[in-house]
């Protein structure tokens, strides 16, 4: 599905509806402002249901709250009915304390990176609380469930020599979250990006968001017919990064191979910790995972 009002999931009358942070995407279908997109997203809200709302921009929150009132739905809001109380970096992820709708949960290990994933975890927990009977959940079961969480293609480490990270960031909102995670939770000597977005996405916004954390960038394409034109990507990247930081590969596999070779050479010569980041689209993330498995990188 896509959006909300016309989403195919609306054939189900959900007793709990969840809306994660709303950003700009699919604007040709959903609207060209966050308020219009929020109005479309609010179409999933059912009468007399619970609506679990992740943290939103104030104008977006106002739209969603009006939709809740119209449907006589009960809002469960991040920062009010539930909240992420604290998070601390841990090996392979982070430790969380979450104040749920019906109780507090401490010492939760989440094997995912990023503030946004911690917030997602809090939102998911609140949704399960209201769905499972409007009561606090067994804390040990929650710990076990969180510890087994996985999110392939979302700041996923898939290689160690060099470190290779795959993220499906396919719009500026996702790219900003990725930049924040890389900046706050990793300490590389340098980072080489392999960027392969779709042509119908905000390519400029993605590149601008990632520029501060990328020392060099290889622009390339995945196998989709919707993939952005490499020559256009090159021109856009050179405007943002400067010509000396931009490289081009004809396809994703070639781009990954080039980035890995560059990182390994840098690490061998300089005793550094240069890493590779592959991002730009969900398709690119999936194809990159398959390429790396097949090549045994």
Account of the 3D structure:
The protein has 297 residues and is of the alpha/beta class. It folds into three domains: 8-77, no CATH class; 83-147, no CATH class; 156-295, Mur ligase, C-terminal domain (Protein-Tyrosine Phosphatase, Chain A). The protein is 40% helix and 21% strand. The protein is built from ten helices and twelve strands. It has a six-stranded mixed sheet. A three-stranded parallel sheet has the order 1-2-3, with helices on both faces. A hairpin with a 2-residue loop joins strand 7 and strand 8 (163-166). The model has no long low-confidence stretch (mean pLDDT 94).
List keywords for this structure.
297 residues; alpha/beta; Protein-Tyrosine Phosphatase, Chain A; 3 domains; 6-stranded mixed beta sheet; 3-stranded parallel beta sheet; 40% helix
Strand order of the biggest β-sheet: 7-8-12-9-10-11
- CATH class of the largest domain equals Alpha Beta
- In whole angstroms, the N-to-C terminal distance is 34 Å
Percent strand equals: 15-25%
- For the secondary structure, the number of strands is 12
> Architecture of the largest domain, according to CATH?
Alpha-Beta Complex
CATH topology value of the largest domain: Protein-Tyrosine Phosphatase, Chain A
Any low-confidence stretches, pLDDT <50, length ≥5? none
The CATH H-level superfamily of the largest domain is Mur ligase, C-terminal domain
The number of helical runs is 10
- Which structural class do the helices and strands define? alpha/beta
**Main beta-sheet annotation:** 6 strands, mixed
Please write the string of helix (H) and strand (E) elements: EHHEHEEEEHHEEHEHEHEHEH
> What would the average pLDDT be, to the nearest integer?
94
Helix amount: 25-40%
Shape: globular
What is the number of domains? 3
Radius of gyration: 20 Å
């Amino acid at each position: 599905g896509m959006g909300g009002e016309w989403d195919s999931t609306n054939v189900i009358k959900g007793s709990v509806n969840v809306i994660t942070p709303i950003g700009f995407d699919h604007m040709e279908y959903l609207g060209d402002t966050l308020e219009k997109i929020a109005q479309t997203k609010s179409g999933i809200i059912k009468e007399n249901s619970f609506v679990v709302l992740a943290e939103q921009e104030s104008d977006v929150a106002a739209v969603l709250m009006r939709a809740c009132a119209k449907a006589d739905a009960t809002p469960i809001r991040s920062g009010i009915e539930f909240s992420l109380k604290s998070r601390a970096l841990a090996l392979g992820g982070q430790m969380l304390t979450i104040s749920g709708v019906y109780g507090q949960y401490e010492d939760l290990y989440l094997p995912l990176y990023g503030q946004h994933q911690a917030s997602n975890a809090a939102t998911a927990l609140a949704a399960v609380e209201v769905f499972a009977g409007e009561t606090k959940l067994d804390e040990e079961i929650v710990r076990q469930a969180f510890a087994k969480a996985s999110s392939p293609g979302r700041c996923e480490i898939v290689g160690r020599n060099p470190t290779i990270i795959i993220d499906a960031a396919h719009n500026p909102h996702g790219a900003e979250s990725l930049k924040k995670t890389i900046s706050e939770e990793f300490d590389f000597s340098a980072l080489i990006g392999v960027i392969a977005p779709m042509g119908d996405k905000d390519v400029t916004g993605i590149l601008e968001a990632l520029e501060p954390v990328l020392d060099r960038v290889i622009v390339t394409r995945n196998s989709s017919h919707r993939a952005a034109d490499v020559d256009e990507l090159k021109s856009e990247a050179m405007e943002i990064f400067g010509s000396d930081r931009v490289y081009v590969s004809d396809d994703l596999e070639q781009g990954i191979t080039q980035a890995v070779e560059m990182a390994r050479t840098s690490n061998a010569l300089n005793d550094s910790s240069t890493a590779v980041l592959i991002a730009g689209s969900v398709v690119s993330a999936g194809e990159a995972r398959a390429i790396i498995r097949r090549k045994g990188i």
